[in-house]
């Protein structure tokens, strides 16, 4: 569904021609996180009152999310100093359990990813993906999107 001249929303993500950004998720539902990202991207253009692309995406996905429920936070994680076989096995198991196309899974370079520990799970942070041990795989087209996604990772805790 086209929500803005260059913003296309689809079942598991969005593509934006204005920002040259594509973000998709696989595994557990991460649409609230994507809504937060869309709102932040378009907030400067629309202002606080009514961010049309955000409202359009909410309607398409059938999600009620009040802008006041969106909370940006600095992610609270610590680096994993020693990445041993056990850590890699946990991440590989998570990736294998997520329902994603084979070409997406094959493009995930876990061995090159930065691995960090959240309170309850591991995260693998690649230049174009975030794999969350809680069952989320988020892939994106620009490395700069990683920090924006991490900022709203707490939105996944509510799922």
Automatic annotation (TrEMBL):
Domain of life: Archaea
Coiled coil ranges: none
Protein's recorded name: PH1570-like domain-containing protein
Organism of derivation: Thermococcus gammatolerans (strain DSM 15229 / JCM 11827 / EJ3)
Gene3D superfamilies membership: PH1570-like
Ranges for domain PH1570-like: 1-153
InterPro entries: PH1570-like_domain, PH1570-like_sf
């Amino acid at each position: 569904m086209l929500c803005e001249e260059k913003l296309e929303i689809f079942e598991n993500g969005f593509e934006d021609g204005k920002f040259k950004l594509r973000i998709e998720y696989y595994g557990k539902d991460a649409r609230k996180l994507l809504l937060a990202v869309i709102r932040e991207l378009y907030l400067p253009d629309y202002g606080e009152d009514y961010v049309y692309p955000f409202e359009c995406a909410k309607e398409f996905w059938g999600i009620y999310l009040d802008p006041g429920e969106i909370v940006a936070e600095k992610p609270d994680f610590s680096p994993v100093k020693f990445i041993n076989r056990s850590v890699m096995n946990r991440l590989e198991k998570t990736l294998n359990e997520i329902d994603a196309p084979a070409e997406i899974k094959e493009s995930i370079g876990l061995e090159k990813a930065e691995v960090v520990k959240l309170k309850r799970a591991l995260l693998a942070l690649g230049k174009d993906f975030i794999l969350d041990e809680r069952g989320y795989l988020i892939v994106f087209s620009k490395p700069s999107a990683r920090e924006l996604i991490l900022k709203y990772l707490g939105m996944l805790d509510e799922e």
